[in-house]
Amino acid sequence: MVNAQFPITTTPRYNFPLQVGNLQLPLHLIELSIQTLHKTHHQLEPTIPQQLSTIDDAALNTQLVRLKPNKQHITIFAIDVSSIRLGETSQGTLLAIRGAIVWKSKNSYQYVRLGPFPFHIPNHMKNDLHRLLNGSTYNAKAPTNLAPSTLYLQTRLTGILERWMQRSINEVTQNSIILWDGNMVAGTPDTPIKTMSKMLADARQQQNIILAFSKVTRLMLYNRKLTDLLLRQSPPCILMTQNYPQYENSIRNMGRINVAKLSKSSCTFRLDIDANLPQTEVIQAVQTLIGNDSIQNSYPETLRLAHIYSTFTAAEVLGLQRYISQESSLKMISRPNIRRILFGRFGKGPEG
Amino acid sequence: MRLFRKEGATIQIISFPGEDVEKGDYLKITDSTGKNLIVQVIDIEYANIPGILEELLRNHNNSLVQGEDVDPFEVANHIAFIQDAHLLICKIRAIDVQGELVHASSWLPSRTKARVKRLTVDQLLASDKNSFMTHLGATTRRKDIHIDVRALDGALNIITGKKGTGKSHVSKLLVLSLVSNGAPVVVLDLNGEYTGLNRDASGKPNSYQDKILVLTPGKNFKLTLNQLNIRVMLSILVNTLHLPGTSAREFKRIWHYLNERNALTLTNLGEAIRDWKCNQHVRDALFSRYYTLLHSGLLTDQAACTSLESELAKIQHGGGVIINLRDTSLTNRYIVVEYVLAKLIELLTKRRLRSIFLFAEEAHLYLRETYWNDIVTRMRHFGAFTTFVTNQPDTIRESIYRQADSLFLFNFTSSHDLETISRASKIDSETIKSVARDLPPHHCLVLGNVVNDFPVVAKIRELDVLAMGETRLFFSESQGSS
């Protein structure tokens, strides 16, 4: 359907290692993008995820593990996806998403960028779009009583591409470390428990180890922010938690929650690793990561590059705006800033 | 192209890939009022696109990070289109109000509705096809440029640029254009570059054969004392040969003495100095100058020698007298120029010459200090219209630049030279500095009356005349290839 209307084809092979070159673009995402830009209707709607909160510290065991870099060669993959709001039309919002896969093999980094994929989210079609997202991604039905916010839909679209890339890399690689940006929380509309379980199981089967780095966390331990616990420790080290609650309402944490300080800096990160992996294997994986990748500010370079390559620059936003104005009938508009009108110089903060 | 910003007389325009604009081009900015703003592009910069630094840093492919984009929507082309946008720095040259050009106005076109189009040079320059139009060359877009040589009439012009850029070439073209249009021209030719104007490139006589007369001092250009009047002679003695005042007074008496007896010859002059009753120091001073003049080879007692006056008479209705100063000593150069200028003033004052176009190459090498102002003020009123040609712009005074009616500016890379010209010329300094620095050889920025005050970059056309004055090289091409 898509290819019949628009001259878009996916390139089957690229000049990259075989396994990454074999990636097929998520056609449903491309179709969705085109449909939104050209006003196609579908039906559905969302559920709102709930947040994890603080837990009972007394029930926890923590273990500080000093790490030794393991230089045994392994390929490190990192995946990150960015989204950006491009502007407004009279009917809704324009946004774009893009993903990047970066891998380090020996001394060089390589990347594949997917996108950008522009989307138009008309206000009157949010429910339809949400239904379409859920239906096309997880074959699930969503409740119809609440229209999702644009920001939420933006997050959903980003999540779809990110999970697809994570699954795809997992399928085509073996004996690798795969770095995710984020955590292993499941049970959200983005990531049903079943999906996350399968992804982690697939990784174990492929003998890949997934390490999920969170730059920001709201988790607390011993009345302190989780990531603050390692601030005074000498790197490289990892604080491993056990018995950290895996369930909160419908949310389930599928990973073991750790705090990592991998190099000298003031930065520490929440590091989620598959809870079903033995502790020795977890430690070994982190040691292999710091032995193979460049670590700056306690953060793996491969993942940093994935972020850099996926993120949008201002020039790209202008280019995307031009693409939309030329390739679709959508007209971008500038709405007056109500805050500015009402409060003048005191009208700070986001529009609305 | 989109109108972006105005700061003073500078207009900034955003141009996008595919909109072919070059430095020096003219643009017409039109809106619904019917007025047109005419601006000239003086510089082209990259548009300050936000995020461009991040983009460049990220996409810099090196040996450490390499990759490829899977871009199914081909958005990259649109992003590149934005990234490659240019910012055109333009100067306002005029406003076209219903066909009438106004050079000063505060009118600004609508930023949102204005349309920007390229304007060809021939749409700006005088388009009436009269016989005075001469083919100067072509624009950078290969459109012919014609100028009206009448714009040189009564005008002071300057041709300047660094060595080897084509100053003498455009000077020759102007000389021949004037000659073709019946004007008399005198060229003070420092390096003998103009002596081939009456022959074509192969050395055969051309259509200017009878119109271009070459006078080489000491050879076919010698003077008798009768041709020199006492004012010119004293000017040479005092200003060029630095004769003291007392001695000059004695010389004047000797001159009058011989003149009254109709015995004004070199031989008689020598004898008179020898026999004249005067202080020995004065005699010695007079003798030393006498022998300098005698050995200069410029003076003669033979009555049949060339008369500048008669040569000028030949070119009254179109022609050129080339004073070939090549191989002429510094002193002789001063003497010759002193004589020529004095003679021109005399003839112009007595209206025996209607007017004359004087071309002076590197005038600072033979022109006395006091003559500069004389040339641009007094002589101009008498009808001597000078064109200075130099590769050292700072040898021409700022006051002269200010009075120049037209300027032919070739490439300069020295910021000092550009500063000198930009400080003094009628046009804004940014135009001079920005455009002149990037001019290729044989291209010049023409400013002033000849281009209706619309600065134009022109590639000067070829001339079918014998090239003279080329630098004699030690290494020949055959030596290099063997």
Strand order of the largest sheet of chain B: 10-9-19-18-17-11-16-15-12-14-13
User: In terms of structural class, how would the helical and strand content of chain B be classed?
Assistant: alpha/beta
CATH superfamily of the largest domain in chain B: P-loop containing nucleotide triphosphate hydrolases
> Poorly predicted ranges of chain B (pLDDT <50, ≥5 residues)?
none
Radius of gyration of chain A from CA coordinates? 21 Å
Summarize model confidence as the mean pLDDT of chain A. 77
Describe the structure.
The complex is a heterodimer of chains A (352) and B (482). Chain A is of the alpha+beta class and 352 residues long. Chain A has one domain (2-346). Chain A has helices at 2-5, 18-21, 27-37, 126-138, 150-172, 193-205, 279-292, 301-310, 314-327, 338-343, and strands at 61-66, 76-89, 92-105, 108-122, 177-181, 185-186, 209-214, 220-221, 224-225, 237-242, 247-248, 251-253, 255-261, 269-274, 295-296, 299-300, 332-333. In chain A, the strands form four sheets. In chain A, strands 1, 2, 3, 4, 5, 7, 10, 13, 14 and 17 form a ten-stranded mixed beta sheet that branches. Chain A has a three-stranded antiparallel beta sheet with strand order 6-12-11. In chain A, strand 11 and strand 12 (251-253) form a beta hairpin. In chain A, helix 4 (126-138) packs parallel to helix 5 (150-172). Chain A is globular and about 55 Å long. Chain B has 482 residues and is an alpha/beta fold. Chain B has three domains: 2-119, no CATH class; 133-221 and 306-460, Rossmann fold (3-Layer(aba) Sandwich), CATH 3.40.50; 230-296. Chain B is built from 15 helices and 19 strands. In chain B, the strands form two sheets. Chain B has an eleven-stranded mixed beta sheet. In chain B, helix 5 packs antiparallel against helix 6, helix 6 crosses helix 8 and helix 13 runs antiparallel to helix 14 (429-437). Chain B is elongated.
